């Protein structure tokens, strides 16, 4: 509450100050605040600065992370007028939660649940509130267990949406600190149309801005980096003005459009990226980060025996627990291009090596698949595939939904935000406006 008044005489000021102090004391007695609850609970704060996602955002300035940054001047806000809505935090490892504090903005929840999950998919309720009136809500004496905690609003208290200044989660992380090898990667395919930021309909400046704002460990691209024929001049005039800002941190692969260059297949691509795209002298290569082994492949030449031999030998040498591979033409897709069998022999090899994740582009939409084998049969030890072709090229419609396809989005441009640890992975599809369009379950590496 903000009080304004003209300057009173000194005696009046003293009386006024006394009255205010008495009022504050009365409020603290009537409704214990954070200081009281903190004194009663010794468990540490374990949510500050952790990765957060939400069902929607009111705008780019209301990110889910605002509710976990310790700054009471920033907040998360959902889209207005829609139920239900949620905000979730990844605590970094399995944890036992004893207390949760919620600081609501005016747009509060009337009815909501606090839930926990081990994998971000199956949720268990640990607390509920009905007829909430906003302000600060404290939940103590909890015994929630899981890695992920979310606040699920089921009924709004106002005509607006849901908005939280802060969500503080207290408890203990099981087994000590979270895995030390955690890092973030941003990925996209089908990126730079022949347009610039001077055109409001040009998408790749917006996806580049969103990708850069996430500030990952590095970026990877799934081909068709530059349209239409991937000439060197086009790379310089378009891609370089946007995604080129973080070229040195990019790990690209070529798509079919890179092969259309009138100067020769991949000439512009190779001249623009140089050793970044050819670190091992070929358009396919591998590298390690944390406990992950990444394999970048050229799906234009999957019929080249030398690439297949190299892949087998590379996997045989790998000592990392988690394996991700990426190329342009996806084996499975519900988009206009559909399934592309060119990737089947590569899937066979990766599946035999217990690889975890495959990313592709080519079709201009976002899609995630449940774990499956190279023949498209769902299996717990299968490979998870993502189609991420929404980096800036014109969207393609969804045409024939494939088995094991769990989520499809065509229209909103965006990037993949991959959150990887020593043993697990999960991702979000983040729109150019900062809103999270989809969030995956958390998977454990094979």
From TrEMBL:
InterPro entries: Calcineurin-like_PHP, FA58C, Galactose-bd-like_sf, Metallo-depent_PP-like, PAPs-like. Pfam families: F5_F8_type_C, Metallophos. The keyword Lyase does not apply. It comes from the Bacteria. Residues 33-172 form the F5/8 type C domain. The keyword Calcium does not apply. GO terms for molecular function: acid phosphatase activity. Keywords: Signal. This is Alkaline phosphatase. It comes from Streptomyces pristinaespiralis (strain ATCC 25486 / DSM 40338 / CBS 914.69 / JCM 4507 / KCC S-0507 / NBRC 13074 / NRRL 2958 / 5647).
């Amino acid at each position: 509450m903000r009080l304004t008044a003209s300057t009173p005489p000194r005696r009046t000021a003293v009386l006024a100050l006394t009255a205010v102090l008495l009022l504050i004391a009365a409020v603290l007695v009537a409704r214990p605040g954070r200081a009281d609850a903190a004194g009663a609970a010794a468990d540490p704060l374990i949510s500050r600065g952790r990765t957060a996602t939400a069902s929607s955002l009111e705008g780019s300035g209301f990110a889910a992370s605002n509710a976990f940054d310790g700054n009471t001047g920033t907040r998360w806000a959902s889209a207005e007028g829609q139920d239900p809505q949620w905000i979730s935090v990844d605590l970094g490892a399995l944890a036992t939660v004893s207390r949760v504090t919620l600081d609501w903005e005016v747009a509060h929840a009337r009815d909501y649940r606090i839930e926990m999950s081990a994998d971000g998919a199956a949720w268990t309720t640990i607390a509920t509130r009905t007829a909430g009136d906003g302000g600060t809500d404290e939940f103590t004496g909890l015994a929630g267990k899981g890695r992920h905690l979310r606040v699920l609003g089921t009924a709004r208290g106002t005509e607006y949406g849901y908005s939280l200044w802060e969500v503080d989660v207290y408890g203990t992380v099981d087994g000590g600190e979270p895995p030390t090898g955690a890092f973030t990667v941003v990925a996209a395919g089908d990126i730079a149309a022949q347009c610039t930021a001077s055109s409001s309909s040009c998408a790749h400046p917006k996806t580049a801005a969103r990708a850069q704002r996430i500030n990952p460990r590095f970026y990877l691209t799934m081909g068709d980096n530059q349209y239409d024929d991937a000439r060197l001049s086009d790379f310089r005039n378009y891609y370089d003005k946007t995604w080129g800002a973080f070229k040195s941190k990019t790990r690209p692969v070529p798509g079919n459009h890179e092969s259309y260059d009138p100067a020769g297949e991949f000439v512009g691509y190779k001249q623009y990226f140089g050793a970044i795209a050819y670190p091992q002298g070929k358009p396919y290569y591998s590298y390690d980060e944390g406990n992950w082994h990444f394999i970048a492949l050229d799906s234009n030449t999957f019929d080249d025996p030398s690439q297949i031999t190299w892949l087998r030998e590379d996997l045989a040498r790998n000592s990392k627990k988690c394996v991700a591979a990426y190329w342009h033409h996806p084996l499975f897709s519900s988009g206009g291009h559909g399934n592309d069998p060119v990737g089947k022999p590569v899937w066979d090899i990766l599946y035999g090596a217990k690889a975890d994740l495959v990313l592709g582009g080519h079709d201009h939409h976002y899609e995630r698949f449940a774990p499956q084998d190279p023949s498209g049969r769902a299996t717990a030890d299968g490979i998870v595939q993502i189609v991420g072709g929404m980096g800036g090229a014109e969207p393609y419609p969804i045409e024939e939904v494939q088995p094991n396809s769990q989520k499809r989005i065509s229209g909103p441009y965006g990037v993949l935000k991959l959150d990887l640890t020593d043993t697990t992975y999960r991702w979000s599809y983040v729109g150019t406006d900062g809103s999270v369009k989809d969030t995956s379950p958390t998977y454990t590496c094979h």
